[in-house]
Amino acid sequence: MLFLHAVEQGLIYGLMALGVYLSFRVLSFPDLSVDGTLPLGAAVAALLVLRGFSPYVALLGAFGAGLVAGAFTGALATRLRIPGLLAGVLTMIMLYSLNLRIMGRPNLSLLGRPSALLRLATTLAVPKGYEVLVTSGIFAGGALLLLLLFLFTELGGAMRAVGQNPDMVRTLGIAPENLVVLGLALANGLVALSGAFVAQYSGFADVGMGIGTIVAGLASVMIGELLLRPRGICTHLVAVMVGSVGYRLAISLALRYGATLGFTASDLRLLTALVVLGALAAPVIRAALRGEEA
Amino acid sequence: MLEVQEVTKTFALGAERVVALADVTLALGEGEVATVIGSNGAGKTTLLNVIAGVCRPDRGRVVLAGWDITRWPVHKRAHLIGRVFQDPLRGTAAGMTVLENLALASRKGRRGLWPLVHRHRRQSLYAAVAQLGMGLEKRLQEKVAHLSGGERQALTVLMATLTRPKLLLLDEHTAALDPANAEKVVRITEELVRENRITTIMVTHRMDQAIAVGERLVMMHKGRVVLDLGAGEKRRLQVEDLVALFRSLGVSDDALLLVRNGSGCKGDGDLGHLLASRQPTSTARP
């Protein structure tokens, strides 16, 4: 049961991790706005469901809102030349107020309201007990496949090149700035979509639910890279999804058995950050052990 | 094909104003290949930057294939201009495969939702790489990061010429390579340029290269064109003639030694050239 829920959450948050992968790894852009776009997606989706829209429409609405927010960060960074980190932080802070405004209060309950995950399970007649597992797998897998196909198009290929060599992209006749804006829009669209699923899954949207999203996303990306050591784009995307599931499993285990080691739930963010810190520091430490300059 | 008309460009260096280009006029016909030499600070790279759109001239015009491109942004000119830099890392995306890099170059500027590496395109790209004679056609699926500097630069030249641009700008593109690879890349460049009849400007530090390649030779000094030779005059030209010319311009012998050796140590600062000038040279005057 514990593991089932962890896998479900891993798949749902996996969409967010794909978004973080897109901005961090593909575009090489450290985008912190995701801490704001996850609850944005949740807020928009919750509002739409409460207004009587279909939960599928709510997903689309959340995705659209994320697109706009990501494009905004991209515009700050490329048009106004604001450093990437700061552009993301500015968007994140603005979204905090905006999310409160969208919801009208700090949280909205969706208990008893329709959820896209359950509705699809009913449509497909998924065996009882595995509804969310199957449908979250379908949504996550679908998003992964679409992103994969996109990255192998001319546009997606140019986007990958931007993260590695913007000069080259410019000499190839494409303005890298536009690709950064588009890439960040897509990344945050995915994160907001993930937020919408989280709201429908957990039965509420909360303005504080986005804190630490970026760290969780990075942890997922890095755990996936550690586990699968991906070389190509395809295995990399799968690794991100695996990493997300692995991350949620680790958290479940920590919450379950951490108490015996003296940890409490409130230590979770500290531990997560330490995991990311360790992954980031690993190359430097490894080089130091070999006696080289990193 | 290319007309640079009375272009002037000055930079502010602190309180000082440095004239990088002073009233430079240069015209190249279709398919013409010109080499450009000059000591440090002669304005060679600035000239390429003005043509490529990296910096705008204070005065003057740049006309290419009938278009006045003086005010076009870099990415818009890219459809008409290919450019290769000294640093082999600058022209390719390291984490993408050879084939993907080529496909990006072959789709110059177009960015639809079609597959980047299309089945029809694979054939022609394979043939293009095979033409380099470096065996890269067998390594299409390898990441460019795994290629050597020479292989990477050869690939960059191929990518820059793949869409047959009106103009090719080469900014000391063999200076970072060892002599054997430099030789190979120059040969590949000459072949591709001749075959596609691309008007080319090649900036070089090596006088022997400047004389051997192309049918025009332009010497720049302190922002001006001081020598512009056509094919006939160039054929009779010797390295020593150029040295004498540089001398007459007051370029110090120390600076020249480096230029004659073609040691390619010109760093971004002038440290490399100072060090190189202290070393004995094997190409002493007879």
Q: The biggest beta sheet of chain A, please?
A: 2 strands, antiparallel
Q: Which value, in Å, is the CA radius of gyration of chain B?
A: 19 Å
Number of strands of chain B: 10
Strand order of the largest sheet of chain A: 1-2
Which residues of chain B sit in consecutive blocks of at least 5 with pLDDT less than 50? 260-286
CA distance, first residue to last residue of chain B: 41 Å
What's the layout of helices and strands?
The complex is a heterodimer of chains A (294) and B (286).
Chain A: H1 2-26, H2 34-50, H3 55-78, H4 84-103, E1 107-109, H5 116-124, H6 131-151, H7 154-164, H8 166-171, H9 176-202, E2 204-206, H10 213-228, H11 233-257, H12 268-289
Antiparallel strand pairs in A: 1-2
Helix pairs in contact in A: 1-6, 1-9, 1-10, 1-11, 2-3, 2-4, 2-9, 3-4, 3-9, 5-6, 6-11, 7-9, 10-11, 10-12
Chain B: E1 2-13, E2 16-28, E3 33-37, H1 44-52, E4 59-64, E5 67-68, H2 74-77, E6 81-84, H3 98-106, H4 119-130, H5 149-161, E7 167-171, H6 179-196, E8 199-203, H7 207-212, E9 216-221, E10 224-229, H8 231-235, H9 239-248, H10 253-261, H11 271-277
Parallel strand pairs in B: 3-8, 3-9, 6-7, 7-8
Antiparallel strand pairs in B: 1-2, 1-4, 4-5, 9-10
Helix pairs in contact in B: 3-4, 3-5, 5-6, 10-11
